[in-house]
Design brief:
The chain is built from 6 helices and 5 strands; from the N terminus they run αβαβαβαββαα. The protein is an alpha+beta fold. A 5-stranded antiparallel beta sheet has the order 1-5-4-3-2. The protein starts with a helix and ends with a helix.
Length: 145
């Protein structure tokens, strides 16, 4: 079941490649970038629902992949406000931060929350605050700010 869930997430990430994906190169190692992201989320009071470790999953099938983790996070305050405006937004929740290593460099990626405004009837001010936080999170975790 976990592998199925991981494959669904990978597929959604690959399909979203043509959509609004923000990618930031990290100044730090993969491990440091990941720890910084987790620390920021916890210090801001977000719930970390799950972390998918794609490298660990690949090992289960005797395959290799560079380090990559998808952090699923959020909070009831934000999710509830979004869902009260448009129940369909639930398909894009919780929020996700993807940290990966490629060719020796570490990157942080996320869907630009502006997509919510394009896909759903939601509060534009709230989406703006989510966008601002996602930018802050990615830049702080990667040492770009």
């Amino acid at each position: 079941m976990k592998i199925f869930f991981s494959l669904m997430i990978i597929t959604s990430i690959l399909l979203a490649k043509c959509n609004h994906i923000v990618v930031i190169k990290s100044k730090y190692s993969f491990g440091t970038t990941y720890k910084r992201a987790i620390h920021i989320l916890r210090s801001k009071g977000y719930d970390i629902y799950h972390v998918i470790d794609f490298r660990k999953d690949a090992r289960k099938i005797k395959q290799r992949v560079d380090p990559s983790r998808l952090i699923l996070f959020g909070g009831p305050r934000t999710h509830t406000k979004l869902l009260r405006k448009d129940r369909n937004v639930g398909i894009d929740l919780p929020l996700k931060l993807y940290i990966y290593k490629r060719k020796g460099k570490t990157f942080v990626a996320y869907h630009d929350p502006l997509e919510f405004k394009e896909r759903y009837y939601v509060d534009h001010a709230l989406v703006g605050r989510i966008q601002k936080f996602m930018r802050y999170l990615a830049k702080r975790a990667s040492g770009q700010r």
